[in-house]
Amino acid sequence: MTETLLQVQNLKTQFFTYGGVVEALDSVSFDIRKGEVFGLVGESGCGKSVTALSILNLVKKPGKVVSGKIFLEGENLLEKTESEMRMIRGSKISIIFQDPSAALNPVFKIGYQVAEPLIFHREIKERDALKDAVKLLSITRIPDPESKAKNYPHEISGGMKQRAMIAMTLACKPDLLIADEPTTNLDVTIEHQILHLIRELRDEFGTSILLITHNLGVIAEMCDRVAVMYAGVIVELSDVRTIFRNPLHPYTIRLKKAIPSAKAIGKELEEIPGSVPALINPPSGCRFHPRCEQALPICKREKPKEAEIESGHFVACHLSR
Fold this sequence. Notes:
Radius of gyration: 20 Å
CATH class of the largest domain: Alpha Beta
Number of strands: 12
């Protein structure tokens, strides 16, 4: 059995606002194995990015991780001090944010920003780190990396910014790379190149990847296993083939039906009625029941418990009992 790298257990993250308590994550649990690409998929507002920030202990006030455990190779990250987490971020765990334009510092050259993790975590001299930065930019397929290393972020394209972000995150060869919607705002061609690059780098460096996306097509292309998240709860988790061949949760089934396909040319795409609920006052019982056409009376009253339907296939749904 493949060794586990990260374990998230019963994670609850909340935001304490003037309007009430936002229950962003409600008892979220999953694990990521060494060397695998693990997908986290769901609509916008389901809690995917909050999960990433919780793992990195970057949830800012008024947000707070109120309970749960996050183990990285047996060490609970939620028990670490801020200074200890600074040594882990960028070294053992790195993240590619949705918007590289916002994540890159506009006043520093690309080469220095890629080199900075090496200077901070590996205590490499700046001159040597800058040379390594050029090599990393080359690995991420940036043309003329020596020249691009001397550019500021506004002087390169969106696709190159994303590649520079990837180079930065891989500088210290982290155990876990979190890719939070890494192809947002990129055209289809560049999206394919970035995803192919991430997969190549996983194969080369053996890095585990948590891939966060709302796109099931990306999940099908990239991931080994996937967790489907809805309104702060994981409703289904399995290997990718099982999720696509035999989805069991009504939400997963509706997500799959909403994927464009060649067979659906000329037909309207199926949509999920309604929208993700506000999590200040989430629905009672199953959070999906107001949008579920198969909801039973118990779905409104009782939160479904996660059950293993078959080996490795977990579903939280009263219909699957």
